[in-house]
Write a structure and sequence with these properties.
The complex is a heterodimer. Chain A is mostly helical. Chain A has a single domain, classed as MetI-like fold. Helix content of chain A is 76%, strand content 0%. Chain A has twelve helices and no strands. The longest helix of chain A is centred in the first third of the chain and has 35 residues. The radius of gyration of chain A is 24 Å and the shape is globular. Chain B is α+β, with helices and mostly antiparallel strands. Chain B has two domains: 227 residues, 3-Layer(aba) Sandwich (Rossmann fold), CATH 3.40.50; 85 residues, OB fold (Dihydrolipoamide Acetyltransferase, E2P) (Beta Barrel), CATH 2.40.50. Helices cover 27% and strands 35% of the residues of chain B. Chain B contains nine helices and 19 strands. In chain B, the strands form four sheets. In chain B, strands 6-7-8-3-9-10 form a six-stranded mixed β-sheet, with helices on both faces. Chain B has a five-stranded antiparallel β-sheet with strand order 13-17-14-15-16. In chain B, helix 2 packs parallel to helix 4. The longest helix of chain B is centred in the middle third of the chain and has 18 residues. The radius of gyration of chain B is 24 Å and the shape is globular. Classes of the chains: A mainly alpha, B alpha+beta. The interface between A and B is medium-sized, with 22 and 31 residues.
C-alpha cells in the first residue's frame, strides 16, 4: 500500500462517522419525506393532492397566510427595533449604553419554555399587568393571549437581542473616521446616516432578517403555548397532521412547503453573502 | 510677519479628557497661507488640538477663531475646515468621483460647476482617470491623494492634516510631501499639519510647534528650531544631536558641527574612533568619549585616514548649552 493511499484512507476513515451520521439523520429522512409527500395515503400511488390540500382547503390556506403575516411582522418589528438598539449601542458612549450592551443578550440565555411562561403570567388577561391595574382601580385586559399579537411580542423577546447582536457587529466594523469624514465635509447627522451608516450596514440587516425569518417560520413552543385554535401557525398545523391525524403523507408535504418557504430566505442569505458589491472586489 | 492676516487664533484653549489627560492654556496665531506643523511624540496632545479645530472634540475652556469668528460652538459640518485623517477614510461604497462630489452636492453646487473642478483637482493630485474606481482598488498613497483632493475641493478656510502620510512607505511619503507643499503654494491655503516625524515637519512647515506632554516646547521656523532649540526635548527630538555632560550642564552639538582631527590634544575633546560608516558622500563616525558615544559627520577624505581604535580630537563648533532641561543663556 502506497503512503499516499494510506493517508487518504486515514482521512476518509476520520470523516466517515460524521458522514454516516449526516446521511442517516439528515439526507435519508429528507429524501424519504419528499418521496412520501408525493404518495397517496391509501394507494401509495403518485399524487399532488397532499400539496394541493394545503393551498385549497380554506382553513389550511389561512394557516399559511397567518404564519406568513406573523413571521413578516416579527421580522420587520424585530429588525427595526434591533437596528435602533444597535445604533444606540454603537454611537452612544455612556454608562447606560455600556450596561445595556452587556445585558441585552440575556434573554438568549433564558430557556424558551421558561420565557414563554414568564411572558404569559405577565400579559394574560389575569396577569401581572391586569393586577397592577386593579390596584389603581383599572380593568386592564390586554387580549394578547391566543392572538397573533401575543405570539409576535414573544417572538420579539427572542429575536430582538439576536438581530441586535448581528447588526451591532456590522455597525462596529464601520470606523469612526468614515463618519467623521462625512461630518467634516458638511453632512449632518441624518445625511451621514443615510449615505454612510445605512449603506455600509444594509448587508448585516438583510442577513439578520433572513435568520429571524427562518427561525420563526417553523416555530412551535410560542404558538403552541400562546396561539389560538384557528388560524394556527404552520408548526402547530404540522404537529396536528402528524400527531393527531396521523396523516404522514400530508405531514411530509407540509414539511416540504415549510422548507421551501425557508429556502427563499436561505436563498436571499446566500445571495447577499456571496454577492460582492462592486466596491468589495 | 505681524502685518500678515491672522487666519486661525487659538486663545487660552484647554481640553481635558475625563481621565485628566489633554492640553491646557494653548495660545497660537496662524497666519493666512501658512503651513504650521504640530510635532511631538505620540500622546503629546497634538492630535487633540487638531480635533478641537475640526470640531470632533469640544473645548473645555478658551476660544478658537477662524477669520475672527469663534467656531467652538459649531458642529464639524458647519466649520470652514476640512480634515484629512491618518487612515485614508474614503467612503468605501462610493466611487472616487462620488467621494469627491459628496461634499459639493451637500453644498448644493450644480454638477455643471463642480464637474470641471473635480477633473482639475484629479489632475492636480495626478489621479486623472480614477473617477470610476472604488477606494479599495487604489493603493494607500493614491487613496490619500484622493482624500486630500476631497478636502481641497471644498475650498476650506483651513486644511487640517492628521498624520496623513504616516501609513505610507518612505518613497511615497517623500513624494506626497513635495506635492502637498506645491499644492499649498499654488492655492495659498492655510494648513495645520500634525506629525511625529521631525523630518516631515522640517521639510513642510513654515513654522513648527514642538509639543511635549500637552505643552508647547517651542514655536518657530524650522531653522530656529533646528539651530536654536530652547529645551533639551526639542534638541533631542529634532535632527541628530550629541549630548555631552560637563559640570552639571549639557552641551548639545550636532554631528555636522563637530570637526575631527587625527591625534590627541589637538582640539576640545579627546576620543577614539568606535565605528565608521559610509553614508554616501560623507561618513558617519561614532567616537567614544569617556562614557559618551559621539556621532560626527566627516568628509570621506578625512575618514579614509582613520581606523577603528585610532585616537582623535573633536572640535566643538556651533552648540547649545542646557541646564536642567532648558537653554542656558551663558
Amino acid at each position: 500500500m502506497s503512503k499516499k493511499l494510506k493517508t487518504n484512507l486515514a482521512a476518509y476513515g476520520m470523516v466517515l462517522p460524521a458522514f454516516m451520521v449526516v446521511m442517516l439523520t439528515v439526507t435519508y429522512p429528507i429524501i424519504s419525506a419528499v418521496i412520501q409527500s408525493f404518495k397517496d395515503e391509501k394507494t401509495g400511488s403518485f399524487t399532488f393532492s397532499n400539496y394541493t390540500y394545503f393551498f385549497t382547503e380554506p382553513a389550511q390556506l389561512k394557516n399559511l397566510l397567518y404564519t406568513l403575516m406573523v413571521v413578516f411582522l416579527t421580522v420587520f418589528i424585530a429588525i427595526f427595533v434591533a437596528y435602533l438598539l444597535a445604533l444606540y449601542l454603537r454611537f452612544v458612549k455612556s454608562k447606560i449604553a455600556k450596561t445595556i450592551g452587556t445585558l441585552y443578550l440575556l434573554p438568549r440565555f433564558v430557556p424558551a419554555m421558561c420565557a414563554v411562561y414568564a411572558m404569559i403570567t405577565i400579559i394574560r388577561d389575569s396577569g401581572l399587568i391586569h393586577r397592577i391595574g386593579a390596584l389603581f382601580g383599572l380593568d386592564i385586559t390586554l387580549g394578547l393571549m391566543y392572538h397573533a399579537s401575543g405570539i409576535i411580542i414573544m417572538n420579539l423577546w427572542f429575536n430582538i437581542p439576536f438581530a441586535a447582536m448581528m447588526i451591532t457587529a456590522g455597525l462596529g466594523a464601520i470606523p469612526d473616521s468614515i463618519i467623521e469624514g462625512a461630518r467634516d465635509v458638511g453632512a449632518g447627522r441624518w445625511k451621514t446616516f443615510t449615505s454612510m451608516i445605512l449603506p455600509l450596514s444594509v448587508k448585516d440587516v438583510v442577513i439578520a432578517s433572513t435568520f429571524v425569518f427562518m427561525t420563526n417560520v417553523g416555530s412551535f413552543t410560542t404558538p403552541y403555548l400562546m396561539g389560538g385554535n384557528a388560524p394556527k401557525m404552520l408548526g402547530i398545523a404540522l404537529f396536528d397532521q402528524f400527531n393527531k391525524y396521523l396523516a404522514y403523507n400530508r405531514s411530509a408535504a407540509l414539511s416540504v412547503i415549510m422548507f421551501l418557504i425557508c429556502s427563499v430566505s436561505a436563498g436571499v442569505y446566500i445571495y447577499t453573502n456571496l454577492k460582492e458589491q462592486d466596491w468589495e472586489k | 510677519m505681524s502685518d500678515r492676516k491672522i487666519k486661525l487664533q487659538i486663545k487660552d484653549m484647554t481640553k481635558k479628557y475625563d481621565n485628566g489627560d489633554g492640553v491646557a492654556h494653548i495660545n497660537l496665531d496662524v497666519y493666512e497661507g501658512e503651513i504650521v506643523t504640530f510635532l511631538g511624540p505620540s500622546g503629546c496632545g497634538k492630535s487633540t488640538i487638531l480635533r478641537t479645530l475640526g470640531g470632533f472634540l469640544d473645548v473645555t475652556e478658551g476660544d478658537i477663531t477662524i477669520d475672527g469668528k469663534s467656531i467652538i460652538a459649531l458642529p464639524p459640518e458647519k466649520r470652514p475646515t476640512a480634515m484629512v485623517f491618518q487612515s485614508y477614510n474614503l467612503w468605501p461604497h462610493m466611487t472616487i468621483y462620488e467621494n469627491l462630489a459628496f461634499g459639493l452636492k451637500l453644498r448644493k453646487i450644480p454638477k455643471s460647476t463642480y464637474d470641471p473642478d473635480i477633473k482639475k483637482m484629479l489632475e492636480l493630485v495626478h489621479m486623472s482617470g480614477s473617477e470610476k474606481k472604488y477606494p479599495g482598488q487604489l493603493s494607500g498613497g493614491q487613496q490619500q491623494r484622493i482624500a486630500i483632493a476631497r478636502s481641497l475641493l471644498l475650498k476650506p478656510s483651513l486644511l487640517l492634516l492628521d498624520e496623513p502620510f504616516s501609513a505610507l512607505d518612505a518613497k511615497i511619503r517623500q513624494e506626497m510631501r513635495e506635492e502637498l507643499k506645491k499644492i499649498q503654494n499654488d492655492l495659498g491655503i492655510t494648513v495645520i499639519f500634525v506629525t511625529h516625524d521631525q523630518e516631515e515637519a522640517m521639510a513642510l512647515s513654515h513654522r513648527i510647534v514642538v509639543m511635549n506632554k500637552g505643552k508647547f516646547d517651542q514655536v518657530g521656523t524650522p531653522e530656529e528650531i533646528y539651530d536654536d532649540p530652547q529645551t533639551l526635548h526639542v534638541a533631542s527630538f529634532i535632527g541628530e544631536m550629541n549630548f555631552i555632560d560637563a559640570d552639571g550642564k549639557t552641551i548639545a552639538v550636532r554631528p555636522e558641527d563637530l570637526t575631527v582631527v587625527k591625534g590627541t590634544d589637538k582640539a576640545d575633546l579627546n576620543a577614539t574612533v568606535r565605528t565608521s560608516m559610509l553614508m554616501g558622500h560623507y561618513v558617519s563616525l561614532t567616537a567614544q568619549y569617556g562614557e559618551n558615544i559621539i556621532k560626527c559627520f566627516v568628509d570621506r577624505d578625512v575618514a579614509e585616514d582613520l581606523e577603528v581604535g585610532d585616537a582623535i580630537s573633536l572640535a566643538i563648533g556651533k552648540h547649545t548649552i542646557f541646564k536642567d532641561g532648558v537653554r542656558s543663556k551663558a
